[in-house]
Structures are given as structure tokens and as C-alpha cells.
Design a protein that fits this description.
The complex is a heterodimer of chains A (616) and B (218). With 616 residues, chain A is an alpha/beta fold. Chain A has two domains: 230 residues, Rossmann fold (3-Layer(aba) Sandwich), CATH 3.40.50.280; 281 residues, tm_1862 like domain (pyruvate-formate lyase- activating enzyme), CATH 3.80.30. Chain A contains 21 helices and 19 strands. In chain A, the strands form six sheets. In chain A, strands 2-1-3-4-5-6 form a six-stranded mixed β-sheet, with helices on one face. In chain A, strands 15-16-17-18 form a four-stranded parallel β-sheet. In chain A, helix 5 crosses helix 17. Chain A is globular, with a radius of gyration of 25 Å. By secondary structure, chain B is an alpha+beta fold. In chain B, strands 1, 2, 3, 4, 5, 8, 9, 10 and 11 form a nine-stranded mixed β-sheet that branches. A two-stranded antiparallel sheet of chain B has the order 6-7. In chain B, strand 2 and strand 3 form a beta hairpin. Chain B is elongated and about 55 Å long. The chains are: A alpha/beta (616), B alpha+beta (218). At the A-B interface, helix 9 of A face helix 1 of B. The structure holds iron/sulfur cluster. The site of iron/sulfur cluster has 10 residues of chain A, from helix 21.
């Protein structure tokens, strides 16, 4: 059922209507009669955010390369359009066919951040699909699935999904669709399909597992109900350099957050920062060859016409052949007037040479993420950046005419004291002075130094998964103390931004939560919560009430120290990482000792043993 | 040697929801996809040299949009048109390409075809005649300095009126130059306020951009 006329009758009443109607270059429209399996790729946030997401671009093209499969895009409508959709009974639809999502075979959500969970329920509701997996009956379609980083602890969402896809999707997504295709033709039931699917490595069917709790609320064990595997191991692609990469992207009409060509240059991270979940769950570290990156950059820019290109990864400067790669790429981007950007450059290996190369492609500000204010605390979190690194890079930047520096820190880190907060202020003031001392600094201009302090959120699959999150009162005292450390003349000159505590608190609850949170999420959503990551939509009072109504103490999840032998809600999910390694790293952290990066020395996280391959 | 190609293009179907700023970006990307030798401005932030005669309101279709593209080497208009049409999105099509003749600042009029679905088109047509017979048509118009009372009568010329069973179709020629431009949606708004016939949202299509001497831009 194509909804075009009904959609069009409303479009002139909403902001940026082009985002709701499809028709972009690169969008794949197929003939219904050629299709065996239809997949709705849902991003639980708005078009402008979702269209910037690389994982969606990869899986979208991958699935659509198969003639008999059709993958379409779905986003959360903004509030103005949602209201009109509800008033006019227009169900959630996909952008290629403009067909309702509930007519699809598989509906897949990507779990990018915890604060998008209420949007998932809202989208299912807009699609008129029952929220709970148990209420969706015996028929195969629509099957509601999810993947992405938050699938490493999907337990708070377990009741809403038929299955989760763990790890990298490039291979397993097609395996899953192939199985679906066969079983659909054979007329199989949902249950029969889930049983077979649970045998595929990387597929987690939550209804086949049941947590049993201790009196104190912690988990006693996870019971396996069907003939399902005891642990579910995440997938990684066999050969990253040869792994599927799209030759083109859908090019949006409306401006999106990152509206540009993207080529992923490496996956995983060698660093092992102890707070960083991405640094662990995407292991092992793998790179694409400079030739592959170059070819993919040319393909993407050529087919999309993008004049902005970014080389993406967790830490692009860790690519072992970055200089070679750039030497090959820069003549092309210059000839084609393409603006090349390299995000996530690290301070400590930011060479002068690299700096000049990037300067050639316009750079007006420098961004550092020392994360902590003292060397002691940086050692605790294993962020191997020293003050000298910072000073050295900043002097090069100031001498090169840069005046804006953005510093990113976290507050509430394990072992943190007021002294560490004072260190943040001291570092910012030091850079302020350094600017004026640097020969050749921009004349007649004031340095713009800003500090952004996030609240630390302990995440699963990190050495800090055992740690309590800081309490609100303590955090606020530390924030005040930090401000009091500035010399009076700097109080106005250095901008400091905090994140709202409640947002990080809720993130902490959901990140390490268990199945008992499903009803809290549902209750919060029913009371009007959605777009929780947008401060103008975030209503913590509604969440507070939802916790109370469900008889759940959120502090149990966020602020409790967890013992090393506690069974975690995600313990049956295998991300190739040993829990023993995290315990050891946690202990090393409390000894204020660092761990070398993977290139220097293997820290024994388990990945090489489990993949049967040396990482380097 | 830089040469400028002038093109007339249409914007129809879903493409009518593309805003003017988005359309500029869309064309720049199409030029890149087509590997045309586009010329860029000098300076620290070089941009592609494209220029549009005027903007089209969001939601309007058109078969009369005019744009210029500057190239670093001369290419036949036909070639540019074929190459661009191969990579433009659904609903945007170059209809002709050639050498610019008039300057954009000579733009004086725009013509529109307006369709108003309504219950009684014949009566609405009479109401329109009525409205036009008045010595002046005063209405509130958005200007650079806020809302202002203006007489739109001198900016408005009705070329043709047709009625079908459920629709009034009006061809309008409206002032569209530097000394005042009139949007056809304001004309229909005044008409529907003036009339008692219930009508649905009108549809607008721009059919021509003209100079004061009624000549085109090629
Ligand atoms: S196995 Fe060793 S080298 Fe490989 S990711 Fe783990 S710690 Fe790093």
C-alpha cells in the first residue's frame, strides 16, 4: 500500500518536507514482484541524524546488492510530522516504497545509544506493530531485530525484540535473510525460525534465555530454555580489507549532521582506554590498505558528488600507513575540490608533518580529549596522553594561526578527587598562557578555549564495568570546585559546558541494565518520553515516576559497585573479551598503572585466542 | 577560459519539496557526479560558480527555472544537458541549455499556472473576476521590513481562466523583479478570502520567467 498521496497532503505543513518523501540519488527502488524478503532498516532518531550513520549505509547497500532482497530506510519523524501522522492515521512507512513498515518481513533497528530506546517503542507504535515480542503471534513477519553497539547488553530491550545480531553485520545479516527466505517459502512459524536462527553464530534470541535473580536483585544465573547455545559469540568479518563496502550512498536533499562521503579506514582500537566501550567491543584492530581506502574514496565521491570526505574510525591516526594513504589521496581531493577531514586524531601521535597536510585542507580549531585533568587520573583511565603532548601540539597549532581549542574531559571517573578537577582548570589556563607565549600566534585575536565535561558512564565490556557512577551531589560539588579553581580573569574567558547529570544517569542505568527495565522503558514512553537524547525533549521527572511505578531503584544499576564475581546481565554474550582481563585491568587502574597499547604489547584481552589469529 | 552555460530546468513531482538551498547543493553534487569541468571562485573557501535566476517557493512545481553554470572549458550546451540529466534526481530535469542572453537583474515577470480544487469552479471564477474589477486589491504582504499593507492590483495580470468540473485553473503573470515580487499564493489567499466557495490547497506551477520586454533568458 503506497502512502504517497496521503503523505503529500500533509507535507506542506511540516519543517523540511524533503526528508519524508524519499527520491534521493542512491535510494534503491525495486519492483515488489521481484522481491522475496523486505527489510526495513530503522534508525531510532530523526533523518538528519540517522542519515549520517555509516553502519546503515553499509548494510543498506549490502542487502540491496541482492536482487531478491530489498532494504529500505526508516527514521523517527520529528514531532510536527508525528502529530500529523497520528491525526491522519498514517502508519510509519519506509522511504523507498512508501509502504507501511508493518508490511515488511524484517524490521531492524540499530542501537547506537541508550537514550534512543523510547524512540524504538514509539516507532513500533507508529508502525502499529505490537511492542512485545510475545504479542506478535505465530506468523513469521514482521520479525523485529536489532544490532549495533548497544546490542552488547540488549537486556533492557530483550522483551521487545525477536532477536539481536551481535558484532559486525556484513556477513551475518545476509545469512539471516537467507534463512528467513528459505523458511518463509517453507511456511515456517516464527518459533521455528527463531530456533534455527539461534544456531547461527552471532544471533541472540532473548526469549530462549531466562535470568534468575538473587534476593538482593543481582543475577543468580541465566537459564537456557531451548536448545540454544550457552554463549552467543559476536561476528567479525573474515577479511576487513576485502569486506563489503558500498560504492555509493543515498545523498540526502536536506542537510544532515554529517552530510559527506565517509570511508572507514580501520576497525577496532589499539588503545584500551578503560572507560571506552567502543575501544573494546570492536576488537580486533584491523586496517584497510591505502589502495583499498583510496579506491573506496574515489568510488564514493564519484558516485555521490560529495565535496566533503572524511576518513572515519575510532582513531584514524593509528593507521600504520596514514602518511602513504594521504599522499595518494590528497592529489585527488585537491583536483576535485574535495574537502578532506580527519576526525579523531590523537594528541600523542600528531606529527608536525601530518599537521601541515591537514592544514592544507582547512582547519580552524583543534580538539583535544585529555579526558582527565591530572597525569595520575589519566594513568588510571589509561588515556596515554601527557601534558607535554598537549603543549607540543597546541604550540604547533597556535603557531599555525589556530585560535580555537576545544578540550573534552569527563568528571566522575573512578578514583577522582578535587585535585583532578583542579587539574582541568590548570590545563586550560596553561594553554591560555601558551597562546601568548607562542611566537607567531594569531595577532590581535584572543584564544578561544572551551572545556566540555561529560559525566562518566560505566559501560559493559570495559574495565570500569564494575564501577559505580558518581552521585549527583558529589558531581555538582566537583563542578563547583572546578570553577572556583580558575583565576578570576579567566572565569569569563574560558567557557565550561557540563552535561546534564540525569541524562548520564539514565544512560548508566540502561547501559548496565537487565530485563526488569523493559517495563520501565515502556512506562516512560507511555508517559510521553521520546527523543531523550535531545535536551528539549528530556523529562527526567517522567522517568523518575516510571521507575517508582515499576518498583525499580535506578541507583541499583547506576551507582552500585559490582563485585568481580557478580553475574552480569550480558555475561552470556561473548564479545571475544575475557572477563578475567577486565578484572585485571580494573585492578591495574586502581594501582594507577597504565597498560601498553596493543601494538607495543598484547595485554591479553582474549581476542587473539578466540579468533585464533595474532592481532599484529 | 571560463564560459557560462545557461540552463532551463523543471522541478516536478517529489522534487518540489526540495528547498532552494538544498537545490543548490543538489546541483553542485550533480555537476561533480557528471564530472563536468566546473569553475570555482577564488579565495580561502572556493565554491562552485553556479547562479540561479530566482528562488521557487517550497512546494511549487516549475518548468521554467533558470540557472547558470560556469565551466573552465567550453562545452556544447547539449553535452552539459545530457550529462546532467543522467545524474539528476527524479523530478529535476534540464530542458534546454545554451548561451545566456539577458541578465538576471532584468527579470520582471513570472508566470504561473494555479490549480484550485473546489466545489464550484464557475462561481469561483466569477469571484475572481469580481476581485479583479476592484480599483485596488489591498492586502497584507510580507516585506523586508515586516508586514505591510499593499495594493497587489498593479502587480497582477490574469492571462487565462479555465474551469473543469472540480477545479479552477488560472494562468497568472506576476511582477517578479527587483521593484516588487508577488507570490501567487498571496493571490489565491486573497481570492479565497474574498469568495465563499470552499476550496482545497491550491497547486502552483511556474511556467515562465520573463524580462520587462517579455523576452526569455536565452
Ligand atoms: S589480544 Fe592482545 S593485541 Fe589483540 S586486541 Fe587483545 S590485547 Fe590487543
Amino acid at each position: 500500500m503506497n502512502l504517497l498521496p496521503r503523505i503529500e497532503s500533509l507535507l506542506m505543513q511540516v519543517q523540511k518536507p524533503a526528508q519524508y518523501i524519499g527520491g534521493e540519488i542512491g535510494s534503491m527502488v525495486k519492483q515488489h514482484e521481484d522481491i522475496d524478503v523486505r527489510f526495513a532498516f530503522c534508525f531510532p532518531d530523526t533523518y538528519e541524524i540517522g542519515m549520517s550513520h555509516l553502519g546503515m549505509k553499509i548494510l543498506y547497500s549490502l542487502i540491496n546488492e541482492r536482487d531478491n532482497y530489498w532494504c529500505e530506510r526508516v527514521f523517527a519523524p520529528c514531532a510536527d510530522f508525528e502529530e500529523l501522522m497520528r491525526a491522519n492515521e498514517i502508519p510509519l512507512y519506509a522511504l523507498e516504497s512508501l509502504d507501511p513498515v508493518r508490511e515488511f518481513d524484517m524490521v531492524g533497528f540499530t542501537l547506537q545509544y541508550e537514550l534512543s530506546y523510547t524512540n524504538i517503542l514509539n516507532m513500533l507504535d507508529l508502525a502499529k506493530i505490537p511492542l512485545y515480542a510475545k504479542d506478535r503471534g505465530e506468523s513469521l513477519a514482521p520479525l523485529i531485530v536489532a544490532g549495533g553497539p548497544c546490542a552488547c547488553n540488549p537486556e533492557p530491550l530483550a522483551d521487545f525484540f525477536d532477536l539481536f545480531i551481535l558484532g559486525e553485520g556484513e556477513e551475518v545479516n545476509l545469512e539471516l535473510m537467507d534463512l528467513y527466505c528459505d523458511m518463509k517459502k517453507a511456511g515456517a512459524s516464527r518459533q521455528e525460525f527463531l530456533r534455527k536462527a539461534s544456531q547461527i553464530q552471532g544471533i541472540y534470541v532473548p526469549s530462549f534465555y531466562e535470568p534468575v535473580y538473587h534476593e538482593d536483585g543481582t543475577i543468580k544465573e541465566i537459564k537456557i530454555l531451548e536448545d540454544a547455545p550457552a554463549v552467543i559469540r559476536k561476528r567479525i568479518v573474515k577479511d576487513f580489507d576485502k569486506a563489503y563496502y558500498p560504492k555509493t550512498f543515498v545523498v540526502p536533499f536536506v542537510e544532515t549532521v554529517h552530510d559527506r562521503g565517509v570511508v572507514e579506514v580501520l576497525r577496532g582500537c589499539i588503545r584500551g582506554c578503560r572507560f571506552c566501550q567502543a575501544g573494546f567491543i570492536y576488537r580486533p584492530f584491523r586496517e584497510k590498505s591505502p589502495e583499498t581506502v583510496n579506491r573506496q574514496c574515489r568510488d564514493i565521491c564519484g558516485s555521490t558528488g560529495y565535496q566533503e570526505l572524511t576518513l572515519s574510525s575510532l582513531s584514524t591516526s593509528d593507521h600504520s600507513c596514514l602518511e602513504e594513504l594521504l599522499t595518494k589521496l590528497l592529489p585527488y581531493t585537491e583536483e576535485k575540490h574535495i574537502n578532506l577531514t580527519l576526525p579523531s586524531l590523537r594528541v600523542d601521535n600528531f606529527s608536525e608533518e601530518l599537521m601541515t597536510k591537514i592544514q592544507g585542507v582547512r582547519k580552524s580549531s583543534l580538539t583535544f580529549a585529555p579526558e582527565a585533568g591530572t597525569q595520575r587520573l589519566r594513568d588510571v583511565i589509561n588515556k596515554n596522553v601527557t601534558e607535554e603532548d598537549l603543549v607540543r601540539t597546541a604550540s604547533i597549532a597556535f603557531a599555525g594561526g589556530i585560535t580555537t581549542v576545544k578540550l573534552y574531559f569527563m568528571l566522575g571517573l573512578p578514583t577522582e578527587t578535587d585535585e583532578d578537577a583542579a587539574g582541568i582548570a590548570a590545563l586550560a589556563e596553561k594553554l591560555m598562557e601558551l597562546f601568548y607565549q607562542t611566537p607567531g600566534h594569531a595577532k590581535g585575536k584572543q584564544p578561544q578555549i572551551s572545556i566540555s565535561c561529560a559525566t562518566f558512564v560505566p559501560k559493559p565490556f570495559t574495565p570500569f564495568q564494575f564501577e559505580p557512577q558518581i552521585q549527583q551531589k558529589e558531581l555538582e560539588q566537583r563542578q563547583e570546585y572546578l570553577i572556583s579553581c580558575f583565576q578570576p580573569k579567566n572565569r569569563k574567558r574560558i567557557k565550561v559546558n557540563w552535561h546534564q547529570y540525569e541524562t548520564s544517569f539514565l544512560e548508566a542505568v540502561l547501559a548496565r541494565g537487565d530485563r526488569r527495565l523493559s517495563q520501565v522503558i515502556e512506562t516512560a514512553w507511555r508517559s510521553g518520553c521520546k527523543f531523550d537524547s535531545w535536551s528539549e525533549y528530556f523529562h527526567y521527572d517522567r522517568w523518575e515516576k516510571a521507575f517508582a511505578d515499576c518498583g525499580i531503584d535506578p541507583a541499583f544499576y547506576a551507582n552500585r559497585r559490582r563485585s568481580f564475581d557478580e553475574v552480569f546481565p550480558w555475561d552470556h554474550l561473548d564479545y571475544l573479551l575475557d572477563k578475567a582481563f577486565f578484572i585485571q585491568e580494573n585492578q591495574t587502574a586502581h594501582k594507577e598503572k597504565t597498560t601498553e597499547n596493543c601494538r607495543q604489547k598484547c595485554a591479553g584481552c582474549g581476542v587473539n585466542r578466540k579468533t585464533g589469529r595474532a592481532c599484529f | 577560459m571560463n564560459t557560462t552555460i545557461r540552463m532551463r530546468f523543471s522541478k516536478t513531482g517529489r522534487a518540489r519539496y526540495i528547498s532552494h538551498l538544498d537545490l543548490i547543493r543538489c546541483f553542485e553534487r550533480a555537476v561533480c557526479r557528471a564530472s563536468l569541468p566546473a569553475a570555482y571562485s577564488e579565495g580561502f573557501h572556493p565554491h562552485m560558480l553556479t547562479a540561479f535566476a530566482t528562488t521557487l517557493s517550497l512546494g511549487f512545481t516549475s518548468n521554467a527555472e533558470i540557472m547558470d553554470l560556469t565551466l573552465t572549458e567550453p562545452l556544447p550546451g547539449e553535452t552539459v544537458m545530457t550529462k546532467l540529466n543522467a545524474v539528476l534526481p527524479e523530478g529535476i530535469r534540464i530542458e534546454e541549455a545554451g548561451v545566456p542572453v539577458s541578465k538576471y537583474r532584468e527579470l520582471a515577470f513570472a508566470e504561473y499556472r494555479v490549480e484550485i480544487p473546489c466545489e464550484d469552479p464557475v462561481q469561483l471564477a466569477e469571484d475572481l473576476e469580481d476581485m479583479l474589477a476592484q480599483p485596488e486589491i489591498i492586502t497584507e504582504k510580507k516585506t523586508k521590513r515586516g508586514m505591510k499593507e499593499v495594493d497587489i492590483q498593479p502587480m497582477l495580470q490574469v492571462l487565462e481562466v479555465q474551469t473543469t468540473e472540480r477545479m479552477l485553473v488560472v494562468s497568472l503573470r506576476l511582477a517578479s523583479g527587483n521593484n516588487g515580487a508577488l507570490n501567487p499564493s498571496l493571490v489565491t489567499k486573497v481570492l479565497l478570502e474574498h469568495s465563499e466557495i470552499p476550496a482545497e490547497t491550491p497547486r502552483f506551477c511556474r511556467t515562465a520567467l520573463l524580462t520587462a520586454e517579455n523576452s526569455k533568458f536565452f
